[in-house]
Hints:
InterPro entries: Heme_Transport_Util_sf, HemS/ChuX_dom. Helices cover 22% and strands 31% of the residues.
Amino acid sequence: MDTLETPNTPPLPFHASAKRPRDLARELGLSEAELLDRHDGPEVVRLRPDIRAVVEALPTLGEIMSLTRNEVAVHEVVGRFGSIHLDGATGLVLHPPLDLRLFLAHWASVFAVDIPDEKGPRRSLQVFDAAGDAVIKVHLRAGSDVTAFEAIRTRFAGKPASPLTVCPYPTTPPAEPGDPKAFREDFAAMRDVHEFVPMLRRHGLDRRGSLDAMDGAHVRPLAPGAATALLHAAGAGGIPIMCFVGNRGCIQIFTGRVTTIKAMGPWINVLDPGFDLHLREDLVAEAFEVRKPTRDGLLTSVELYDVRRGLVAQFFGERARDRPEPPVWRELVASLPRDGAVDPRLQPKD
Length: 350
């Protein structure tokens, strides 16, 4: 989980608190970005938000761990930045195992963090949105290029003219749908999943609202614990999955098999070499099986939503481009119990 940095604000020493930055910031009534900005010392440097140039410099770091999270899920992938394509305010990183979708309009502040530790310095570049919430954190590893990190910190450092200001995003009410029948007709005619988001805009729907407009052939509510059951089944069956976790500014994707799945308190965790997932299933308010039409047949996903009806994670089966999804993935999802049913896989054993 997000434990690789422990910034604090004076008068406490920088490394004095064992609390996670998000937890400490909440206790102090700050955003995490404000917490970093108020630190007075060389351990934290606020960088100029020259976002495109910062992104383009990331490959120089070598092997890193990329962390993307929201309130419910933390997604960590070890890899190297490369194959970066920027187009206006959006970006794509497709350099397996690193797979990212970047929404740069929400990249508001950037910090270089270098924490002293008895095991050696812990270095990272951390990006936050306008509300001060983390977008992505790029953590250096033992084999990372420290000289490149220092060069980025030096290149983009500049004494800020004023303290960082943050502005919470306004609460967005659920979208008022247009004609559900017209949406269902368009949806049924969809040939590519990338048509889905523009379709939502045309029909005045958000993603969660679209599920209410779909018919039973395309959406099925799942019982609590769906993600835990899915991960255990995929691990036991050796079924490759795709796991998407995102926030306003970034979506990070893992593709592959999961093997080590462990529950720790409220968290269900995947703890595999090169990939960690930490999911607060108690904060998942709703889960759904969703089947989207494509030219290659129905594409099945499991979608998790929080109490605010925001999408926090998605799971797909791994598939080759322009090929149908594997039947074993469709069978796995079909085996997940419907909402209101009890999944025997999640019951305590005598």
